[in-house]
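Example record used in the benchmark description.
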Amino acid sequence: MLKRLLIASAFALASFSAFAADPVKVGFIYVGPIGDHGWTYRHDIGRQQVEEHFGDQVETIYLESVSEGPDTERALRMMIQEGADIIFTTSFGFMDPTLRVAKENPDIYFEHATGFKRHDNMSTYGLRLYQARHVQGVIAGLMTKTNKICYVAAFPIPEVIREINTYYLGAKSVNPDVDIDIVWVNTWYDPGKESQAAEVMIADGCDMVAQHTDSPAPLQAAQKAGVLGFGQASDQIKFAPKAQLTATIDNWGPYYIKKVQQVIDGNWQVEDYFGHMNEGAVGMAEFTNMPADVEAKAQEVKDAISNGEYFAFTGPLYDNTGTLQLKAGEIADDMHLNTMMYYVEGIDAKVPGS
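Model output (structure tokens):
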């Protein structure tokens, strides 16, 4: 009898060990190709950091170039069939499909980037990339010779509107004569469209090119035309070494590692994460192709933002219709930032669809 119990116990322990050793399956759904050298590329770097950190404790899977809409929902269901325990969806337009699927699958964890809708098993996360964009604006305002800066924009959503505004505010803070042109390309990744948009604005006098699209094409167009610009989401200087002044660098890895660790530990939590420059979530590439005084000013502003001493969106702040958006001394809270659908005073344009 004792022998049977020992055998049964040994079998149970072996079964438990095998179960415990099963890796957590982590899914990622990307809006662009992992080779875009921008937004999706940096998310995939985060995925690789998860693999490096956890080793055989995890298995990661991903789908790239997934369209926003019905394709998102199909991609989510495919990952669930593959056994995903936690799924990260990495574009604003993935929000509603992620929410629908999350409600139908309460035993799976969902994480949505840049949105604002949450559920019992669905968190949201983003980075305060507008902080680095403001520094870019300061550089652009000091460096422009034509007083015309420009912006290649993807879709009119709060995240993009917010960064256009902070870029312009940064430039305006050091150059009251600066003007901004904006071209909407209605795509996250299309090097041809992105390049063409930059070329059109450069031909109209723009000499500082910024973008909220995901390829290096606008920066390459800037170098070809002999003007300057900024990398998007990652250090893109190898594509335009004579043109890049700096770049925003998205650092998603620490958040991905934290949330996967929660799943492993059995204590995953719903949250709304908004990563800050002061924790390294928002980085910037080396300052290049600029005079020492411009670099010094850019570093001063960057340090002030990182130290919590300076906030770009501080009132009084008016939109370009004359409506007061922030009272004197008021600092925009996260809800204001995440629902921003107005241009600030001085931008001579209309938000598409408004």
